[in-house]
């Protein structure tokens, strides 16, 4: 159902359930932010390489920040959009609405051995052809299998399995089956589960059978832009607000960056970095080193696909410098401290804390620091962390341009680390193209808001949304190609040191 919203001050709220915290973000019909609230939640690390979240804490945090935000707004809310951390898996009971296990986070590597086993059994071609993904513990399928085989989750009639978007939608619309809660998702999130056929846009019986995941436990797949349901009072939020847009965080950022034309590319420098290129409405064949994913599906059924390069650790590296090593007091110190030195003095940091993603796909790589001397200071190490973001992105963009036939002519940057002009300059130097940061840096939340508002008539078309994109700053390459290549060659040497560090047998 789509309802035109005629209030000239229409407000749309995006609920952004990220990896380390949740955000409620409000925009008006011009796409301008009118308020936000943010709250971190607990990270659980039960074993090395394992990462878990308490799904109930995620939900209560969402309720808290959303109510705080709504209390500041003078206008009614036309719609809610959801964006989320994608591959993280939640298992809950439809009858009670309670989680049956902690959520297993996208960063978690506990199923690396299982992925190796599936590869050895010859299942990689099936996974690549149907899903556009690779056999890696990053994705949801083997996590769901682990919950059912090792995690004590019973595959009974009351089981619901989903990514975080499904968990939030369920709670927004009732929280239990008796209350009429909606169990659904959409193609951008579904395409990250390793259970979804991106060519038919439906759950794959073959893959569900392979991993022992009951299809009945999975949510209905609906378009990314369209009404999923409405909020109910029992959710703890105001009742009657349409929930009308959902997308995984990186696809939402691509939408928020108005990358609606094939070849347009963005990078989100968040907990990880995720480079996505719009490749249009035809699903491309799998390409080594890259993922093929659904970008979004609109209410009329139009579907766009994207190539994606997933870099696991960028912003989380800055958190590690702050929380693990204590060499910075806050993330905001990273940019100025990195800029206080002209180079790393030969230091390279490969942040393979949970393995390497695109284009290497090595779950057994581990974090590596090389080139340290007695003259190395904390500023050099922080700059090495910032430079690693640019090098990893270059690796992905190089593979992406070769696969798509689209030469990247500019890169649209967003995410928390994109506030660092130094990072954007380093990136422009490495890619040899302009790097642009929009005025609204919260493009993930903005994309979810646009998808929801498009369904409810706040915005009438992609052209109207695209016209709202506004430039904040654009950095051009400022060094020679030879100088950039020399630095990158040494980076590749450092990557080689980090690869296959952890024994495959654990």
At a glance:
The protein is of the alpha+beta class and 506 residues long. It has helices at 55-70, 112-120, 124-131, 140-149, 164-172, 187-190, 205-211, 249-256, 315-324, 334-339, 378-404, 421-431, 443-455, 462-466, 481-498; strands at residues 11-17, 21-28, 33-40, 52-53, 77-84, 89-93, 103-104, 159-163, 184-185, 196-197, 202-203, 220-221, 225-230, 242-248, 265-269, 273-280, 291-297, 303-311, 348-350, 368-370, 411-414, 435-438, 471-475.
Show the helix and strand layout.
Blueprint lengths: L10 E7 L3 E8 L4 E8 L11 E2 L1 H16 L6 E8 L4 E5 L9 E2 L7 H9 L3 H8 L8 H10 L9 E5 H9 L11 E2 L1 H4 L5 E2 L4 E2 L1 H7 L8 E2 L3 E6 L11 E7 H8 L8 E5 L3 E8 L10 E7 L5 E9 L3 H10 L9 H6 L8 E3 L17 E3 L7 H27 L6 E4 L6 H11 L3 E4 L4 H13 L6 H5 L4 E5 L5 H18 L8
Parallel strand pairs: 1-5, 5-14, 9-12, 15-21, 21-22
Antiparallel strand pairs: 1-2, 2-3, 4-7, 6-8, 10-11, 13-14, 15-16, 16-18, 17-18, 19-20, 22-23
Helix pairs in contact: 8-13, 11-12
